[in-house]
Amino acid sequence: MQDVYALLQKLRHCVLGTTSETRPHCSLMAFLFNQETDEVYLLARTTSKKYQNIQQIPYVSLLFDTRELMECEDKGRVEAFTVEGESMPVYEEDIPRLKERILAADPRLEKLAQDPECAVLRIKVKKILHAKGVNFSRFIK
Fold first, then answer.
1. Distances (CA, A) of 119 to 19, 48, 89, 113, 129
2. Taking a C-beta distance cutoff of 8 angstroms, is the pair 120, 90 a contact?
């Protein structure tokens, strides 16, 4: 499990999958992973479809993969992690600290973080499916 956590610490992007009552929605997101709490933190505008979906249905899927860490010729060795998660409340007093940590990991998000409509999403990891290529996958949590 430690090797998976080490990879998640190196990655900077994931795909967030949410759903409304009848339709799925995916978004490419920058994120921060907290190994100690098994939580993923994301920024989103409260007016966004993803945020609205999560308010109604808190269960999400996150897809992480190692493509951004690999050279072009290594793409055949991509590893992927599909996470089942649940959105949890973020305490008001934690928001400035979480935004600061997210910005330390990805300063490009500064304009979004300063937007008054910006919210911090806290996703608790419930399950992780680890895949290596097309022939190997296993649940590791």
1. 18, 10, 11, 8, 27
2. yes
pLDDT tens for residues 40-62? 999 999 999 999 999 999 999 99
Average pLDDT for the chain: 90
Q: And the tokens for 58? A: 């808190």
The predicted structure's pLDDT at residue 78: 82
The Cα–Cα gap between 117 and 128 comes to 30
- Please give the average per-residue pLDDT across 65-79, as a whole number: 72
Q: For residues 36 and 15, what is the distance between their CA atoms, to the nearest angstrom?
A: 22
The confidence score (pLDDT) of residue 134 equals 75
